[in-house]
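Please decode residue identities from the backbone states below.
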């Protein structure tokens, strides 16, 4: 064999060796590196064989280097496959021994054929390892490699059968070629089968419902287990159905159009039919595919029953009151907007009835929250019993309900209904061991007479109920144009309070509280509202608005801050100061941090605690007598005096106040006006003064305007006098002169 042919065979075998190994096919560099590392030393050995003039040592060294390189290559690239590495190294060692024996013999020319034969044999073993499962192709490649190697060495040198060498080499090459083709065909076939099985597994094992429909015949061609099972069928039963058999009749037209359509589309909440006749909602997607040359529609769906139930549950919780199971404010507003749209379309008359339970907080404070909740449930039940199927109601506020009466023949029908309801609601409520009679305020407004907008109607009904509360208990009031004007004024007044608070435009005036002889004992801080557009506003007007809107809390804090600031300023300027009485609203007093805020403000302005008298109405104190007593005792222990303002206008008695640390009791001016001519009022005032003194309280008479009133009150033992007889409320800059004089003449 010629040296050029041998070198070519060695290079080809090395390249085949590198290409046939998956460990080397990761990139072109590894293939070139492997081929060069294997073929280089082999070719060098071949060259040395012809240029060393019979010297064996260069050949030995070159053979040792070449086989060491091949061993290094095998260990480097096949260290993860231990069994394959051992087989290759054993084959390499066997052939290496054969080459060394041949090199030491006189027939060194045999190396020319052994070197490429060795690489062909190693390549065959490696190929068989890479494809052990493909018996036909890999066996043919191995046999071809062995025949090819044998033709190079055994047939030519050992048996001198030169005539068969060419034919045997060609047969070996052909066997390798055919074996490679078989491997490729078998590999592709197996990949195709595996891919088909993978897709089948994905289709059958998918948790989503999946089925295919032939577009031409509209028949099912395939379905997975989830699709058939969810509909209550076996797979053969499902495939025997038509599209219309699995869609609920009420949704059949729309859903069927989506299923048989010619475009891909989403399916939202399609209602599907089970074998037992029950239905379930399904969301899915339809895709047009080409399967086996036929247009096919693939449907992928999910049963969304649980999701829809969760959405419905969340929507119910967002729009309903958990205590009464009625609509809440959000749900009622949405329903009212919808009903008004229908009423506008069909010219329907509707009445909105607002029902408020007056002073209901007293019930919860007195009897406990459980009793209060039971009362609300009973009232809600009584209202519900008076409704027709078309009417709706809601718990629209904490202590109030709203009702929409639909299809009225006239506004008088709403009056009749409200009067009947009022009769039911005023009956005592039996909650546990308690029989409780509630007071109600009912306001009525009619669509479209009183407004066509839902917001306007709700506002009008609210103001009508508010007017009912002011006029007395258990009354029904209707919205009127006068009420509408009053509502606008109230809203304007509320906004004015907000603006003046933000701009710090309120003022404090101070009215002296004197001994009967006119000596100044203390002052009362009174808030003055002088609006730039509305003018001077009486406290009797703006204080109720502030209480209803919640603005009384920041307004009360403003008064306390500025009164303390004024006291601090007087002391800094050397003015002799007297205690200042500051009115505290019921809402302020109920704040959980009320006492802490009072003390923090006094510390802020460095005010001595005995200079502050806190005035509370008796209703504010007695609404929750236990908590009120604790707050008052804590403040009293810090040196702050407590007064009860407007005594006699509430529903309590002096006996209930004995447990409070009260210093002063102020008789409301309603008792003072004209009491000197009243036969019944004078004994009442005398009794109040006597009981207050018995409880170590001082008595202050408010609204004293005449000398005769002063004389009678002094004779009854009234301690302090406040009213126009001594002084009207005056600005802060006039107080130093009044205090300096010490006594004010009546």
């Amino acid at each position: 064999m010629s040296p050029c042919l041998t070198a070519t065979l060695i290079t080809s075998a090395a390249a085949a060796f590198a290409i046939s190994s998956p460990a080397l096919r990761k990139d072109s560099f590894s293939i070139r590196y492997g081929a060069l590392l294997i073929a280089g030393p082999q070719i060098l050995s071949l060259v040395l064989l012809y240029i060393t003039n019979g010297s064996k040592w260069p050949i030995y060294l070159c053979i040792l280097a070449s086989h060491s390189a091949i061993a290094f290559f095998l260990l480097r690239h096949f260290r993860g496959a231990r069994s394959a590495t051992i087989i290759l190294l054993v084959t390499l060692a066997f052939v290496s021994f054969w080459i060394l024996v041949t090199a030491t013999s006189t027939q060194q020319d045999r190396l020319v054929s052994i070197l490429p034969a060795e690489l062909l044999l190693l390549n065959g073993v490696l190929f068989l390892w890479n494809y052990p499962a493909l018996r036909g192709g890999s066996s043919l490649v191995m046999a071809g490699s062995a025949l090819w190697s044998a033709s190079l060495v055994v047939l030519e040198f050992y048996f001198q059968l030169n005539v068969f060498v060419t034919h045997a080499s060609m047969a070996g090459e052909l066997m390798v070629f055919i074996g490679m083709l078989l491997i490729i065909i078998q590999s592709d076939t197996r990949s195709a089968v595996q891919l088909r099985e993978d897709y089948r597994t994905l289709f059958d094992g998918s948790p989503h419902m999946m089925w295919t429909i032939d577009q031409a015949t509209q028949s099912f061609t395939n379905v997975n287990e989830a699709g058939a099972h969810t509909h209550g069928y076996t797979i053969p039963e499902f495939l025997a159905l038509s599209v219309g058999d699995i869609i609920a009749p009420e949704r059949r037209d729309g859903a069927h159009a989506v299923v048989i359509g010619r475009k891909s589309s989403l399916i939202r909440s399609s209602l599907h039919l089970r074998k037992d006749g029950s239905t379930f909602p399904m969301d899915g997607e339809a895709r047009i595919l080409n399967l086996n040359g036929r247009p096919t529609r693939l449907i992928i769906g999910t049963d969304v029953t649980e999701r829809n139930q969760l959405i419905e549950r969340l929507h119910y919780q967002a729009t309903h009151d958990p205590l009464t199971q009625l609509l809440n404010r959000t749900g009622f507003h949405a329903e009212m907007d919808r009903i008004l749209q229908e009423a506008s379309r069909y010219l329907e008359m509707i009445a909105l009835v607002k029902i408020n339970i007056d002073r209901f907080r007293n019930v919860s404070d007195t009897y406990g929250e459980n009793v209060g909740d039971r009362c609300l449930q009973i009232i809600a039940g009584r209202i519900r019993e008076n409704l027709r199927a078309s009417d709706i109601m809601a718990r629209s506020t904490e202590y109030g309900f709203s009702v929409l009466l639909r299809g009225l023949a006239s506004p008088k029908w709403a009056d009749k209904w409200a009067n009947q309801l009022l009769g039911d609601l005023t009956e005592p409520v039996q909650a546990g061991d308690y029989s409780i009679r509630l007071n109600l305020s009912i306001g009525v407004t009619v669509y479209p007479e009183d407004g066509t907008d839902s917001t306007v109607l709700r506002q009008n009904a609210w103001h009508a109920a508010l007017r009912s509360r002011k006029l007395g208990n258990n009354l029904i009031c209707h919205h009127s144009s006068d009420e509408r004007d009053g509502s606008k004024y109230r809203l304007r007044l509320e906004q004015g309070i907000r603006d003046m608070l933000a701009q710090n435009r309120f003022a404090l005036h101070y009215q002296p509280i004197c001994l009967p002889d006119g000596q100044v004992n203390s002052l009362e801080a009174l808030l003055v509202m002088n609006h730039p557009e509305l003018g001077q506003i009486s406290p009797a007007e703006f204080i109720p608005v502030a209480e209803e809107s919640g603005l009384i809390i920041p307004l009360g804090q403003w008064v306390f801050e500025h009164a303390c600031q004024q006291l601090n300023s007087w002391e800094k300027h050397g003015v002799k100061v007297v205690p200042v009485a500051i009115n505290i609203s019921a809402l302020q007093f109920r704040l959980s941090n009320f006492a802490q805020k009072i003390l923090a403000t006094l510390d802020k302005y460095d005010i001595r605690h005995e200079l502050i008298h806190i005035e509370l109405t008796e209703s504010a104190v007695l609404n929750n007598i236990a908590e009120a007593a604790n707050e008052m005792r804590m403040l009293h222990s810090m040196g702050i005096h407590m007064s009860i303002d407007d005594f006699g206008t509430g529903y309590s008695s002096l006996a209930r106040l004995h447990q409070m640390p009260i210093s002063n009791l102020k008789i409301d001016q309603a008792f003072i006006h004209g009491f000197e001519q009243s036969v019944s009022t004078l004994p009442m005032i005398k009794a109040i003064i006597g009981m207050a003194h018995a409880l170590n309280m001082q008595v202050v008479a408010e609204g004293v305007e005449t000398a005769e009133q002063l004389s009678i009150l002094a004779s009854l033992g009234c301690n302090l006098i406040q009213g126009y007889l001594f002084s009207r409320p005056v600005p802060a800059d006039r107080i130093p002169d009044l205090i300096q004089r010490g006594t004010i003449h009546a």
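Observation: The mean pLDDT is 79.
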